[in-house]
Design a protein that fits this description.
alpha/beta; six-stranded parallel beta sheet; globular
Amino acid sequence: MHCKDLTNIKESNQASTKQRPIRILHVVGGMNRGGIETWLMHVLRHIDRDRFQMDFLVHTEQPCPYDDEARDLGSKIIPCLDPSKPWLYASNFKRILRECGPYDIVHSHVHHFSGYVMWLAKQAGIPVRIAHSHNDNSSAEANAGWLRRSYLTLTEWSISWCGTVGLGCSCNAVADLFGAAWKTDTRWQVLYYGVDLKPFYDRVDSSSIRAEFGIPLDAFVIGHIGRFELQKNHLFLLKIAAKIAKQELKMHLLLIGDGSLRSDIEQKVVEMGLSDRVTFTGNRSDIPRLMLNAVDVFLFPSLHEGLGLVLIEAQAAGLPCIFSDVVPKEADLVTPLLQRTSLSKSASIWAEAVMSATSRVSAISQRDALAVIENSDFNITASVKNLTEVYEANLSKR
């Protein structure tokens, strides 16, 4: 074959690649309003959808809050069931790749289970296989039994063997999934979440928003956003609120989110005599609006976090933040608003920190706090740019 013919074939292949977008299959549990899924939706809204096609493989057939919007933006929501039955899951996964592909990238967000996803994607010949760590479970896994430890070891080995890229939302999150020596392997890197900051410029009348929830205009409102799961430490949060309620008669706790432990926490609120001081909102699509206009202090006593996207959002809203010292320090952006507190401290110490937090608000205006986030890597524009560079750079190698 002549060189001219080879050149024509090469140019034809390049033209073919340019004609279709890079196709990415994201693997998530479901498109719920959690930190991972919220970030992915921020990405989907801001990415160049002519160049990048994002679909979502989910482990549920139940409708999830972000499903409809994702479809409206051109993405598929593809159920792949039975993750607890590896043989059935493998069959479903391979069928999806055949019927919905071809995909250039499989980007998995299901922590250690990503090891199995990476193995299946490699078998299927997917050129770029990304395992993404969104949490630091090291403390929670420290006392795991032998069966769990065997699972963790096997999946970490599979990620290392079959993954072509490893991302984490913080250094702690990267180390948790890819090992303490992750910096010695160029495949592993930190990729910060990005927040869509546009809604944080829109203030409205606080009285109307508080009235929606029956909260007095002059109430001292402590806000928390998070899934009702053990990680978010709601029981300790209620103990803190109970201490504050004894000192501040106008205290009100606003709990935003949903999860498997919500009914337990609701019952605990009744038992503690706090029913008229606590509001459960369920999942909400207007988090910036509530932070800006209904909350005075943000309280975040998590047992562990990969980063804590809502903490970035709380800083963009200009809220004083009292949070546990296990949260990665990369989240410390607007320092005048922040106070780290040890989980070993009593609920009384935490209550004192919350009560004194409002004195720090005058140290920086909300607009100035927002500007700090705008000029950081946590701006959605920077986050999308960094992510697409990872996609393109790794595809070009293969």
